[in-house]
Amino acid sequence: MKEAYIEVEFAELYIELSKTALHQFIKRMMSQKYSLYWRYDASTIYLMIELDERIHELPFVRNPEFLTLSVDNLHIYDEVLATSLENLLQAEKGNGIVKRVTEGPLYITSYRAGDIESMIEIDGSEQVMMNRNGSMIQYRDDGKAFEPQTIYNMMNLEIDYVLMELYEAMTNKESLLIEQHKKKLKKLLSKREQVQHLLSKSS
User: Fold this and answer.
1) Residue 48 domain boundaries
2) Which value, to the nearest 10 degrees, does the dihedral of the CA atoms of residues 92, 97, 100, 105 take?
3) How many angstroms separate the CA atoms of 159 and 200, rounded?
4) Are 82 and 151 found together in one domain?
5) What are the two backbone dihedrals, phi and then psi, of residue 29, each rounded to the nearest 5 degrees?
6) Of 101, 123, 145, which residue sits at a domain end?
7) Is the same domain home to 45 and 109?
8) Is this model's pTM higher than 0.85 or not?
């Protein structure tokens, strides 16, 4: 029985892997019954990861002491591989944005030097507010506090995503979805103005 459909997008991904770390990653994937092999071209080495007739390519740049996994966008359609890659991103102090598409919300996690810089859930329940001293912003009601600039950057990602959904709805002439996306976009733009105002006061 096949697992439910999953899509995880890694954006602006940059990880420097030592040969030891790469070997450990390969061994871990092979223990999960994946087939791995290498493909080469003039400037890039590709690690091909195959399971059940599905193949993913991880592009590496070769360096004397390590390999660099550097890619603008990488789509993974396998939960085990996506989780292993995200763990690698954390363990090897990499940078990148991980977008997890589910049947419900879209989850976006931003990593810098292996640490979670921010984490958001796009499902219409977001909220922005200033705390008592006015220097931080809370995003949603989960008690997490982030710097205003981080919230501003992540909010731009949300706006881009809603614009994409709006364009698709307009292309398909889905009037109900068009109105929903327009309302959500208006709400996000209003909240972004609040963040911009806070940033201008703190600069």
Assistant:
1) 1-123
2) 140
3) 20
4) no
5) -70, -40
6) 123
7) yes
8) no
Bridge partners, residue 50, by sequence = 35, 55
Angle 79-91/19-31 helices, nearest 10 degrees?
160
Cα angle: 34, vertex 35, 36; to 5 degrees:
115
Question: pLDDT in tens for each of the 203 residues of the chain?
Answer: 344 557 899 999 999 988 788 888 988 898 888 999 888 887 788 999 998 888 999 999 877 677 899 999 999 989 999 999 999 999 999 999 999 877 777 788 889 999 988 787 776 444 433 333 333 344 443 444 556 666 777 777 778 778 888 888 898 899 998 998 898 888 888 888 877 777 776 65
Tokens of 111: 């990593």
Q: What is the DSSP letter of 5?
A: P
In total, how many domains does the chain have? 2
- Of 123, 152, 176, the position where a domain reaches its end is 123
